[in-house]
Amino acid sequence: MKQIKFFLLLFICYFPLAINAQTGYDLWLQYEEISDASLSQSYLNSLTGIKVMGNSPTLEASRNEISNAYDSFFNQELKNANSGDGLLILANIDQLPANMRSDVKSDIENINSEGYIIRSLEQNGNKVTLITAKTDIGVLYGSFRLIKEMQLHNDISNLAIIDSPKIQKRVLNHWDNLDRTVERGYAGFSIWDWHLLPELIKPEYVDYARANASIGINGTVLTNVNANSLILTEQYIEKVKALAEVFRPYGIQVYLTARFSAPLESGDLDTADPLNTEVKQWWKDKADEIYAEIPDFGGFLVKANSEGQPGPNNYDRTHVDGANMLAEAVAPHNGIVMWRAFVYSEDDPEDRAKQAYSEFVPFDGQFKDNVLVQVKNGPIDFQPREPFHPMFGTMPNTPLMMEFQITQEYLGFASHLVYLPKLFEETLEEDTYVNGENSTVAKVIDGSLSNNKLTGIAGVANIGSAKNWTGHPFGQSSWYGFGRLAWDPYMSSEEIAEEWLKRTFSNEEAFVDPVTDLMIKSREAVVKYMTPLGLHHIMDTGHHYGPGPWVSSLSRPEWNPVYYHKADEEGIGFDRTQSGSDALSQYADPIAEKYSSPKTTPEKYLLWFHHLPWDYEMDNGETLWHNLATTYQEGVEDVEEMVDTWNNMEEYVDKERFEKVAMLLQIQLKESKWWRDACLSYFQQFSGMEIPESVPQPEHDLEYYKSLEFPFAPGIRPSWE
Ligand code: GCV
């Protein structure tokens, strides 16, 4: 009796905590008990025992993942077995007995080295489920897929799934510094605890690898592109090795950023000239040293001659010289170089949007085979909306790697709910027309447009030391969606949102449908309340938090918002047609032709390509000023709708995550109004027109908005003075 009382007390004290304590740490790998009895029974019938053929840390990870999921789904253990109805077999194709191999022979021909097959088969009169692949990592991907099928409550009794990734290098870029600050990071400090590595292996490292493997991410660049050459020293290579060992069973290769001046800084050379023999040797030796410790090291990511980073131009050499020198160093070890095209010069008066194209396109075909040129999705810098980068499609003989930003540098940090796969999808679906119709950006990236042998995609991570990894609980969906699109760039962002919601929160239709809708609309909402109608880069300076269209005092012209919106009494927008910077000429027809007139330019890109008078007549017959103002207001109303939708979801979400999202949405609502009011107050002084009646008057005057300062906004290295 005493004992019962004790347990009752425990229950009362801790049970509420147990159901409420949902930090979000488990991401989309929440293996909730399957409460639908008939569904649960059907899964139990299909999976009665497990047999893993072969032996490797990756196969062990596969078994563990399935066993853990099984435990949680059904509250019982999945036992090892050798045969019987309901047996689950995990095997690399090489380990399969001949009869089973012949069952999947034709499927095997249709997968690549990371693909997998899941088949329900008959074996000696028994029904079994087989997960097989050409590599163990394929088996792991297949195991996560089977788990996903159950998380989504799909039937698994008759499976015939074949899947392979369409892009080879699916990589996260961490802009993490060695002091654990994260450039443009809004989820705490870096998860890499450099000080305590290599000895301390945090459980987070394993869970990071599990989460990434579960969506097919197969590479991670551990360090900031604004690089520190210390990472290439023996002391740090040892730490990197420890992480690589944790990630290896999960198929995740480790990459580092290479600071171009490293031979000077961490070596004892007096030059970093890429054509200098000693410099070349220094990098070869460095590569050998790294590969001796980390045999599957992926290679280097380089930001060179960009925003103050050193590079080959310092020695009057080209990007080709720099990239090829590093490529030669890693080639004997099958390494690659990801060379960024994010360049714009402080001395070049040319439109910033044109500079990367001008600098790189003439080099097409000159890079070594193991070089990928990494290009941001748009020609400026991860704005809420940009047209696709004109380099896509125009370097057919050079593999171009997509760079998306998952962290929300220009999209309200980790306090705004913005589902980024919608943005990624928009870019991937854009038609470059370089080889006629249907030459989409996705086809450039997966190599199918020009038959590129090497393919890649990168996402700047939004991960940090926050308990839930990403700060905003919905930030996880952008990480998830990046992985899914990296695997298959033709997926719909809506399907991804649904999957993520079901795996992360609940399968209830009454939850999934409205919240999918909320997520899908969230991207357009942020465009409307920050940068409607093609406006861009009007965020406040440095930290990029909040509006700052008035900023005009920074040393480099293209760092100032006024450079981008060009508002004056005459009108607003950046003329990128022939009468302006002619950036449009970098696009193929029919884009160049169609966008040359404002009348045929999609309104979403209007002020990106045109400078137009305030009274310019828009498609709906209203003036440009009117539509600018009402679009800002629509953005605010969209957030109000998001708030309402979420507030109706309380019964489907645990208390902790529900309240966190609800509170963050209030911040988003407040800030959307701030954006609207600040921008309209500023632009109104040029338009001289009244704010339409349907739009509330700004709460404060312009001077107030201009006076706001945020010296400790996250995402930039704090300065304590
Ligand atoms: C890592 C923008 C960001 C920088 C970032 C840079 C880049 O300019 O503001 O923080 O630096 O892009 O992508 O290299």
TrEMBL record:
The keyword Acetylation does not apply. Pfam families: Glyco_hydro_67C (PF07477), Glyco_hydro_67M (PF07488), Glyco_hydro_67N (PF03648). It catalyses: Hydrolysis of (1->2)-alpha-D-(4-O-methyl)glucuronosyl links in the main chain of hardwood xylans. Residues 150-469 form the Glycosyl hydrolase family 67 catalytic domain. It is an enzyme of class 3 (hydrolase). Signal peptide: none annotated. InterPro entries: A-glucoronidase_C_sf, GH, Glyco_hydro_67_aGlcAse, Glyco_hydro_67_aGlcAse_N, Glyco_hydro_67_C, Glyco_hydro_67_cat, Hex-like_dom2. SUPFAM superfamilies: (Trans)glycosidases, beta-N-acetylhexosaminidase-like domain. This is Xylan alpha-1,2-glucuronidase. It comes from Autumnicola lenta. The lineage of its organism: Bacteria, Pseudomonadati, Bacteroidota, Flavobacteriia, Flavobacteriales.
